[in-house]
Amino acid sequence: MDVHVSLVGRRDLAGQIYAQLRAAILDGRLRAGEALPPTRELARRLAISRNTVGVAYDRLAAEGFLTSRVGAGTFVRETGSAARGAPAASPLRPRARWDEVSAWPAPMPGIRWDFRAGLPDTALFPYEAWRRIMSGVLRPSVLGDPGAAGDPAGLPALREAIARHIGVSRAVRANGRDIVVTSGVQQALDLIVRVLLEPGDVVAVEDPGYPPVRMLLAAAGMRVRGVPVDAEGLRVDALPGDARAVYVTPSHQFPLGMPMSLPRRRALLDWARRRDVVIVEDDYDTEYRYGGRPIEPLQSLDEDGRVLYTGTFSKIMRPVLRLGFLVAPPSLHRAFRMARYVSSWHAEPPAQAALARFIDEGLLARHIRRSRREYRARHERVAELAGSLFGDRLAVVPAEAGLHLSATLPPGTDDAAIAAKALEAGIGLFALSEFAVTGPAVPGLVFGYGAVTLPAIDTGLRRLGGIVAGAAGAGRG
């Protein structure tokens, strides 16, 4: 056991050792059953006599903190007290805005039918192929010089692989130099805020929209303004005139699901050009498109270089794989690289190297094709059952992509109460009102189907149908 003990001066050396070991035991840094270094070894490390260490050990043993076994060594005894944490009293206080931030979503214990949006089916992931690739990259010859931490923008091989992948699958115009590897869309947005915006700047977001984005922007000191959406996506005519940035999900609006129409996309680009505004395009799960014509990204329509395109691999592969990317124009390359450097330097090199090989060997494209077939069947089943089981109580919002469907409830319905009642029955899902920003909340339910199988969809939605019907009856009463 490598115990940290340091000595100050030469007075009462045994007392100093005793106090530091006692504190480590009480704090939980040394746990019951752990071995302490032999007195000879600790004396050598501290450059003191062995008898001095022995005095400290004997005192701790006499007070019940240590026990010795002949031929085995000295061990920490069970003290029966809870480990102590950091000092409770402190003059340090967070900024007031952190009192307003809470984790989203709230924990949902006891789920049997998991309709939470944004979760993929981890059982579809090709674990054997990923394990083979990971074992292949965990070698010094692949990881390179251990003294070189790596490019803050990411491994060149992964950046080139991402550029090829999004160029083929999404028609995004980018090369490897334009890519910054991130831990996900939220880190990409954090980099954008720190590179391009100032505290107090107005940032427009879709209403309803993704809560963690609003939380990040508010925590960074931005003034967040919700902008309503309609059947064509974000309403450009409702954008605030003092906005410095706009965050949008044009290919598959979150959470409602409709794409932004081509005229609306062109109008947004024109509005941003005239007002010198940056557009953040979050293309979060459009690898999963089940019908209709492919939606051209804002980034590929942009002629001015003011669209910053972000994406993530978490919803394609596994949420625990925290790898995403940001596509930026050349004028911002150095600033984003430096912003990445000063915050967290770089993403995990082995995971980056593995993902590069996963893409280059065609395994990512194969996984998307396979999982798309499964998700399409679930998408169609949710749409069919939601339309037949709930009657006129639930109106499904048409969508042709992603891992969830939204449906609206009659005005005045308490969708949060329905979601809470569903959770009591083992059904996990989000109320649509959770995603409201500043405008009136539209009641409804969001049905994620990434983490729920086809048979479970049938069982879960039929059970949910009774809960919704009961809520409708109570409302009429």
UniProtKB/TrEMBL annotation:
GO terms for molecular function: transaminase activity. Keywords: Aminotransferase, DNA-binding, Pyridoxal phosphate, Transcription, Transcription regulation, Transferase. InterPro entries: Aminotransferase_I/II_large (IPR004839), HTH_trans_reg/aminotransferase (IPR051446), PyrdxlP-dep_Trfase (IPR015424), PyrdxlP-dep_Trfase_major (IPR015421), Tscrpt_reg_HTH_GntR (IPR000524), WH-like_DNA-bd_sf (IPR036388), WH_DNA-bd_sf (IPR036390). Signal peptide: none annotated. Residues 11-79 form the HTH gntR-type domain. It comes from the Bacteria. In the C-terminal section; belongs to the class-I pyridoxal-phosphate-dependent aminotransferase family. PANTHER family: HTH-TYPE TRANSCRIPTIONAL REGULATORY PROTEIN GABR. This is PLP-dependent aminotransferase family protein. It comes from Actinomadura chokoriensis.
